[in-house]
Design goal:
Layout lengths: L1 H14 L42 H4 L3 H5 L11 E4 L14 H16 L4 E5 L11 H9 L8 E4 L16 H12 L2
Parallel strand pairs: 1-2, 2-3
Helix pairs in contact: 1-6
């Protein structure tokens, strides 16, 4: 993951010490797959929501799949913080109105599972010219997270990212912003 690599390079240079990062991600995932099944706010994902090529994502997009098969493997370890950069898939699946509640549940559960009061850096979705009308709902909820849960820093992304790609092409400006906002001594 280039964002993690660039961020680790900034931290290492600033602190003159080794920095490790763990990439725990799945492209095009929705937030439900990162929550344990018992924390579902919106219910399970139904095959009817997936059409055409998106059916390829069905198995790992089911509720709890990434939580069970990726995140849970990290539970014996300790971490300094989490950088959460997700939400695009929630802008068109009907969960955008409860995204903030789901993210708060995820943060609380991950802190509980890891037995740490981890700091969460949450990256705002950037403006995407092909995004659906609900894109801004998720953006607003991400930027509002510090008002509903402690230990969360949102990072504005839309002013330094391209609008014609679903993710920023050049991750360096975003990594630098995260570093300067959260990690710089």
């Amino acid at each position: 993951d280039l964002l993690g690599l660039h961020l680790a390079e900034h931290i290492q240079k600033d602190r003159n010490e080794a920095v490790g990062f763990v990439g725990c991600w799945q492209g095009a995932s929705n937030i439900r797959t990162w929550l344990p099944k018992e924390l579902s706010i919106t219910g399970d994902v139904y095959r009817g929501e997936y059409k055409g090529a998106e059916e390829l994502y069905y198995d790992w997009s089911m509720l709890g799949q990434c939580y069970d098969y990726q995140f849970r493997t990290l539970v014996p370890f300790t971490f300094d913080s989490v950088v959460w950069y997700q939400g695009c898939s929630n802008t068109g699946d009907g969960t955008q109105e409860v995204y903030g509640k789901m993210l708060m549940s995820l943060i609380n559960r991950w802190r509980y599972d890891l037995r740490q009061n981890l700091h969460f850096t949450v990256i705002e979705l950037h403006d995407f010219e092909y995004g659906c009308a609900t894109w801004h709902i998720v953006q607003e909820q991400i930027m509002n997270m510090p008002n509903i849960i402690d230990g969360v820093t949102p990072i504005r992304c839309k002013d330094i990212s391209e609008t014609n790609h679903i993710h920023p092409v050049d991750k360096r400006p975003l990594a630098k912003r995260i570093f300067e906002t959260v990690y710089k001594k």
